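Lab notebook, bench 4. The sequencing result for the construct came back, and we need a structural model before the next group meeting so we can plan mutations. Quick request posted to the team channel:

Model the 3D structure of this chain.
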Amino acid sequence: MQVFYKIYDLGEIPDPGHVKSEDISLSFPNATLTGIQLSGDNRVAVLRRGTLRMELNGQEIFPEGFPAESLLSGVQVAPDDRYYTLDLPVGSGNLKFRYIDVDNPLTPHTPYTPKINLRFEQP
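Done. Here's the predicted structure in token form:
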């Protein structure tokens, strides 16, 4: 099995309540999506201000409002354990991702850029 990673920049979240929707075409027909992780240029904002929705090829993986904090891990976690484990064939490879900035009084809004980090395996 060959393991490879792709990082997708969602673009800046310039304002409170901003919504970013991405429709990502994955061209890895023999691959399996084995993990997902969120990161960004301001990890605290991604951790405390974000919710998301994700689907792969029409199959919902995370419902609307899923807390972004569930897909982040700190540096104290071993590198191989930082991804949320999945086992999904990529097939035609249409990943839809929606990231929503939500108000959090503990973390005032400043512009930030979340990223989706994906781990794949293929024969």
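The first strand starts at residue 2 and ends at 9.
Will bring this to the meeting.
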